[in-house]
Amino acid sequence: MFFVSKSLPENKESSVPRGGGPWAALTTDLITGGCVVCTPAWAGGWSQMHSDSFARLYWVREGGGFIELASGRLTLRPHRLYLIPPHAPGRYVCPRRMVKDWVHFTARRQGLDLFLGGTRPLTAAVPAAARPALDADWADLLAGLPAAAPEPVQLRADGSLRRILARLLATADATPAEAAAAARRRSAPWLSAVLEYLERRLAETVRLNEIAAVARLHPTYFSNRFTALAGTSPLQYLKRLRIERAQALLWQTRLPVKEIAAATGFRDVFHFSRVFRAVTGLPPARFRHRRTGPVP
Questions:
Q1: Cα 34 to Cα 54: distance, rounded to the nearest angstrom
Q2: Domains present along the chain, CATH in parentheses
Q3: pLDDT digit string (tens) for 176-193?
Q4: How far apart are CA 136 and CA 143, in angstroms?
Q5: Biggest CA-to-CA distance, the chain
Q6: What strands lie across the sheet with 65-69, from one edge to the other?
Q7: What is the CA radius of gyration of the chain?
Q8: For a tag site, which of 63, 143, 149, 170 has the least CB within 10 Å?
Q9: From residue 271, how far is each of 49, 87, 262 by CA, in Å?
Q10: What is the pTM of this model?
């Protein structure tokens, strides 16, 4: 097993204009990745729930396993690509042995999470003729992960991630509901301003009518529209952002849990711990210990 990781504060993002339309800009942020030989001890198996603010991308080479998600069991098979979206709680199980390449990353399009509102993992089979090119992309992708990698190598890594995502998104079938949700997101020009407002107010008390005012909509209508666009209510989305920030602070700093709770808008450490565990499956202290190494 090997993995390479960038410390999050030093991550470089890449945004490449693509012309007009909803794909005018895609911003990607590579966090960590590698190649791993999984055994029954992989990711804690049945004993540990994982839910993170980044997406996982897998290329399974040999063997297999499965992930128990709220949407059902995702079976991992050889010669397939898999994308597990952010905030998809699951238990990762490998009954025998599995060899896979993996990366953790985030992606934004026009400032919005590329997978906003998506809860279903994506998967696509890769035919034998296409595997050499995919293997080359994965080699470039993993080579560009270290923070000390030369800039041209990092740029090739970003290009490789985009090509892999393009292959997966082009061949994975979206459900009619997911396609409709994507169309609705493109028709809501106020959504970017609302998301930016929420990100600026993570440490403060925020009420629904204040968020609706940013969109210039009635609170009830706004809440219904936001839920249809994002797959969750405005206040639940705000809670998710706060837990994302808390995860980053637990990982990147040695701040006491009490200070992290205050910095992310929770009234006391007990409330924070209860919500954190409900979202991630782990109490903050255990999460901090687990994040000493990435879970592939």
A1: 16
A2: 2-175 (2.60.120.280), 188-290 (1.10.10.60)
A3: 455 555 555 556 788 888
A4: 11
A5: 56
A6: 72-76, 65-69, 90-93
A7: 19
A8: 170
A9: 20, 20, 11
A10: 0.71
